[in-house]
Amino acid sequence: MIKDLRIAGSVAVLLALAGCSSVNQFLGKEESVDYQSSAPIRGNGLSVPPDLTQVPPSQRFQVPQAPGGTTYSEYASAQAQRQAVGASHQQSRVLPQYEDIRVERDGMNRWLVVNRSADQLYDETLDFWRSQGFTINTENPAAGIIETDWAENRANIPQDFLRRTLGRVIDQVYDSGKRERFRTRFERGSGGAIEIYITHQQMVEELVSESRTVWVEGEPDPQLDAAMLSRLMVYLGASQEQADAAIAQAATTPTVPVQLTQVATGSGAEGALDIQEPFDRAWRRVGLALDRGNFTVEDRDRTMGQYFVRYVDVDAVQPAEPGFFSRLFSRKPPPQAPQYRVQLTDVGGATRVTVLDADGNPDRSPTAGRILDVLLQQLQN
Fold this sequence. Notes:
Elements: H1 2-26, E1 35-37, H2 72-94, E2 101-106, E3 109-114, H3 118-131, E4 136-140, E5 145-148, E6 151-153, H4 161-166, E7 178-188, E8 194-209, E9 212-217, H5 222-235, H6 240-252, E10 264-267, E11 272-275, H7 279-292, E12 296-301, E13 306-310, H8 324-329, E14 339-347, E15 350-356, H9 366-380
Antiparallel strand pairs: 1-6, 2-3, 3-8, 4-5, 5-7, 7-8, 8-9, 10-11, 11-15, 12-13, 13-14, 14-15
Helix pairs in contact: 5-6, 7-9
């Protein structure tokens, strides 16, 4: 009887250990994001921790220096002053205030507004993505674009007792069946501030037979974009509490109520889309739609209302094209696609979107029509 009770108790302990990870993630006690790139990490992973040289020296044991002698009252006054300055420095180091970073929101879209130089932010963002376990697939400083390689979120894999015990020995046996890559885009906002947008694409592995799987495009997750924005905000110097509060405050900030199905009308067959919003908001929406629609944005000119993009038309006839899985995870550069211009024009408080060719002439080709259809789908998501 006692032996049976011991066996039952051991089984209960093992089950409890196996379920700890799921329970902790549900309670928010464990990280829900833990990326591992599908490509080997390049470059030196060693870096100097930020603010390492900014730690204020302790004044606690320093003897006040003054010519000649000093009275006890003078010593006590000087020591109190030093302690006050030290406390002020310590407080600013432990919980600093970063007034140059804030979160803004429009509908389900969130972005950072940072009052720092674009060069500094670009380099810091590159380091941020590498610190999160990603490799950089594309970087274009002139266009303000950073795109990561595909990576797997290992936090989606259940941390059961067997995997925690054997660790990395059988790590490669487990796969979440999902891959994400992130795109960061920088825009110059009003007043010289830099706007930082983060969007992601997701691919999901689906079983089509007992021996065959396919990778299909997954649904966008605005909360994942917000989570990475929060992490970037912390990396740029804000505390985790400040980042969480900024994201939460942006989520409760009222925005202009717009029915998503009525944001854009038109189609590729009609040759134009009409967005029922002013140019500034439409420019932001189209930029995010291009990011999520897998367009390659090479440049943009806001004064002319043009995005210069390249688009691989998978519906066009392309002989000897590699398989989808090879295109998805291959390190080989894709074939150069023709350039198009996505033109935004203010039409009396609304915005019209058309497609121009590389020379700036109206384009009514089937590919131009599919570009508009992809934008319409992304604008309605």
